What we know:
There is one protein chain. The protein is α/β, with parallel strands linked by helices. It has 11 helices and 9 strands. The protein has a single domain, classed as TIM Barrel, CATH 3.20.20.30. An 8-stranded parallel beta barrel has the order 1-2-3-4-5-6-7-9, surrounded by 8 helices.
Amino acid sequence: MKIGMTLPVMEPGLTRKDLEVWTKQIDSGPWSHIALGERVLFSNPEFISTLSAVAAWTSRVEIIATISVLTMHDPVLSAKQFATIDMLSEGRFTLGVGVGGREEDYQAIGSDWSKRRWGLLAEKVKVMQSIWVKELHPELGPEVFSSKGPEILAGAVGPKAMSMAADFADGLAGFSFNADIEEIKDSFQRVMEAFASRNTPPRLVTSFWFGLGETAREDIQIHLSRYLGWMGEDLASELSKTAGLAGTERDLKDFLLAIKDAGATDVLLVPTSKNINQLLAAEEIVASMA
């Protein structure tokens, strides 16, 4: 099982130095991937720009977009943007896609919330893939590194979405809200069933929020009270009391081992603080599992 780290892009007050230090530390450490996700009406740095910076700052780790809300965007422009990131990273880019869950993000950029559908997502992915293999708009560049373009992971949850994803994706970009091993096992089982007719087994990627040390739960609560604020202050506060993994380095290692035993090909840790010590503490655990 490969283990990656998500950048703390949803933390307030981020600077270029914060992002560069985290990025270069991940690239030089025992991590296999570096990841970040998309959000519009929030204080995070813009998604495509940040992916491009990460591609330029790194030379080793796989870069995973977790996830692009592709149904908000034009697939032709997206194909060009992601091909550029693939070019800058020299083929180290993997694209997670989904439909998102925040209507305000759609509205803010003039997208239609009613088009938040997996059928449309599948169509847009196929447009991008046809561009990357030069079937559509063959003059559009840059060239992608692999013959088919970046690998695609689906941020699918329900069985219908997973079934549709099996037609265009290479695996799952999953997330466990409560860092629950049974939830993770269930999602893997549903993916395996949806991908049963494929010649190659799907990539099983999961992720979860984490916090380490004496302030772990407090860090998670502060982070999620902001991040989940779109749900309403009371609900965000209540959910943050149990979400994620708050504990010791031993707790984190035990959970990672349980995820490995569940059949994961990859796992992505999602920090709830921009404190570099959280990255360094988790790094020791990952190095011990190598």
